[in-house]
User: Which sequence fits this backbone?
């Protein structure tokens, strides 16, 4: 046990969002580099999205976009929904979540347990289709005269990372950071953390970890977006470029297959004792690829985005892994 653990007594659960610990991933082959994982799974609902949920709601309250008693609507891969469910319950708002059908059943149960209404929609349609989760959420918000959070176009998403995640990483590494590896769902993390770190130290390399099938890594490499494919990893990879996502910050991009991602998450649990979700597997594999290509020692930071507890029916279930052909 370390003697520098945080012994603070918080006045409420929302104050526990952020200020997450960082741990060196020392049991993995990181070549000449030091790889640090920031434990976003330690946020109250178990993901990095608690940070943006709180900031987006508090910004909307401050500007009057969200009024007392109004319903909140959001499209999410699940984690933003869980963060919003926490904040909404604490502050007394009703919440409606539009969740694509590929997302795990654990997320749906968890959202419902926290008092949210969950509407499942198709995962096989693209932006512009009325059943695409973001379009459907916008329609429902209009019908209900509700507040549509819209993390994909909401500057308060980026701001949460500019004000908290970025500065925390800078302080925890005491500025000794050479590269930051992240994925893109909404692009809030990339734009906020990437933007903050580059402003402090322009030589910090920003590395995209992207699922195979997403348009973002190919767009970085060729300047053109291919047709979007399909992937099983939840929370990152895109079929369009969200308006808040600043791809110009990127120095490198790696495409990681579902199989590589799931196996990397499982290895993280067995070797480092951290039970993370599938998006963290994409980040970890991209970070390891980057580390192993370096010839000079570097300090590389990545995120452990969310807890693996919400993927017990999937990547931590051997039957599911076998069925998908990821293990023998
Ligand atoms: N990991 C997980 C598990 C997520 O749910 C998300 C957001 N959907 C991200 C990473 C991506 O973060 P961002 O939206 O900031 O790009």
Assistant:
């Amino acid at each position: 046990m370390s003697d520098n653990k945080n012994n603070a007594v918080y006045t409420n659960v929302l104050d526990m969002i952020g200020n997450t610990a960082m741990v060196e991933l020392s049991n993995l082959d990181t070549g000449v580099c030091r790889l640090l994982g920031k434990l976003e799974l330690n946020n109250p609902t178990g993901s990095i999205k608690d940070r943006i949920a709180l900031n987006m709601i508090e910004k909307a309250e401050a500007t009057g976009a969200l009024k007392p008693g109004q319903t909140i609507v959001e499209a999410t891969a699940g984690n933003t929904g869980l963060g919003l469910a926490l904040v909404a319950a604490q502050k007394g708002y009703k919440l409606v979540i539009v969740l694509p059908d590929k997302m795990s059943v654990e997320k749906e149960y968890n959202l419902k347990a926290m008092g949210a209404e969950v509407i499942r929609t198709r995962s096989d349609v693209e932006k512009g289709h009325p059943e695409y989760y973001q379009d459907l959420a916008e329609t429902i918000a209009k019908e209900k005269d509700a507040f549509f959070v819209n993390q994909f176009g909401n500057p308060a998403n980026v701001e949460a990372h500019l004000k908290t995640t970025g500065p925390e990483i800078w302080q925890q590494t005491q500025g000794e950071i050479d590269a930051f590896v992240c994925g893109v769902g909404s692009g809030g993390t990339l734009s906020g953390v990437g933007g903050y770190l580059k402003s402090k130290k322009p030589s910090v390399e920003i590395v995209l970890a992207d699922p195979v099938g997403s348009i973002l890594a190919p767009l970085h490499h060729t300047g053109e977006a291919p047709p979007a494919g399909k992937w099983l990893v939840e929370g990152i990879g895109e079929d369009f470029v969200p308006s808040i996502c600043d791809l110009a910050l990127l120095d490198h991009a790696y495409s990681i297959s579902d199989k590589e991602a799931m196996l990397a998450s499982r290895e993280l649990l067995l070797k480092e004792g951290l039970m993370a979700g599938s998006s963290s597997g994409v980040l970890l594999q991209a970070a390891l690829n980057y580390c192993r290509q370096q010839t000079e020692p570097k300090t590389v930071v990545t995120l452990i985005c969310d807890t693996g507890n919400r993927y017990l029916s999937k990547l931590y279930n051997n039957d599911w892994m076998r069925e998908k052909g990821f293990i023998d």
Observations:
- The mean pLDDT is 96.
- The longest helix spans residues 155-172.
